């Protein structure tokens, strides 16, 4: 199957993110007098405000985001296409080795980190507007923190690099501890939230904001709290999530469908997102995770992974999110095809359509945004952290949870005890945030990954998951480059 060969490119396109929109805004600016790039050196570059802007653009272009495939088939949300690349079912069954190509998020994250380090290290010496300079540096710190947050959640402690790498020298760096990585993340986000603006004019919509820094910091604290009921991180998560809510900048769209429309790009619900332009610089997530061989997509559906029955059947019939998130039938040339969560034929499988841009006419041209953090996520983080911090659901925790439920068309909840409320939030996160790189991380931080994966045994999964699988193996290719990288236990 040719599509798998396109995946590295597809997911490098996730790194083209905001840049697709941001660069479009500057595309009309004539810079015919620039030095040819082949002649650029340290002496001729990083000297002007335009150089600073371009350097920051590289950070957005390479923004860190894990392959959503890991989240889907590494949890209980999806079953991979079971023929073709053998690494797909091996990852799904947790027969994971360090040379599995699907776990190699590591090098892309450090590319992003290096671009951010260039901005953070070089911009202080550039003569330009000081306010703009500090904002650019804050944006780079936010993006660097995002890269390290994804790295530490996937692999555990990793090398901390805060200066730019210009060549092969100095690549052999040992792993720092998990606590040290989180300290770096917290410092970068704290620095960023103090400088970043609350919002931007239309031309800069999509850049990192103060709310984005606070919101990711809330998720950092939620993750660090883990399963510890008395952790001080719960209250810190409450504070940061509440600060995002109280800004009054973000809100839920009236309907769930609107949150994933093309018009939602840069909109009120997306605290931070990966932005694309239809048929200009798009993604293939709708086609890629669509119905295999279905002619309704440009190039036909790839069927990378299908929806599990355990996820699909969780939705109440009046839950608006079900029809938006999944495609359960389609019509083509007068014929209607009904799809199933149990039929083994991938051409008949209920599939993901949440991020499908139906207006795209080219393979890989979909322009819908990929959400890194939506406001509904912030509301649910607040509800969960508040319940944990206070030991019982408060009025404001109910309000946050029920805003998400009622937007989906569900009745508000009330009268729950601490445990029931916690489980209600966990369920709501799964229903609300599927296909958004949250499920596996949520299962890990709440100590439920092994149980959930073993329980999802459709299509003879028989996962060989063990407690050590909460971390992926360090990719073998990266250990070969840096022998000081120690492999995670169990691999």
TrEMBL record:
Pfam family, one: SusD_RagB
SusD-like N-terminal domain sequence ranges: 94-222
Keyword Transmembrane helix: no
Signal sequence, renumbered to the chain: 1-27
Keyword Ribonucleoprotein recorded: no
A cellular component annotation (GO) from this entry: cell outer membrane
UniProt keyword annotations, A-Z: Cell outer membrane, Membrane, Signal
Compartments in which it is found: Cell outer membrane
Record-linked Gene3D superfamilies: 1.25.40.390
Segments forming domain RagB/SusD: 336-491
Family to which the UniProt record says this protein belongs: Belongs to the SusD family.
Protein name: Starch-binding associating with outer membrane
Protein's organism: Olivibacter domesticus (Pseudosphingobacterium domesticum)
Source species taxonomy: Bacteria, Pseudomonadati, Bacteroidota, Sphingobacteriia, Sphingobacteriales
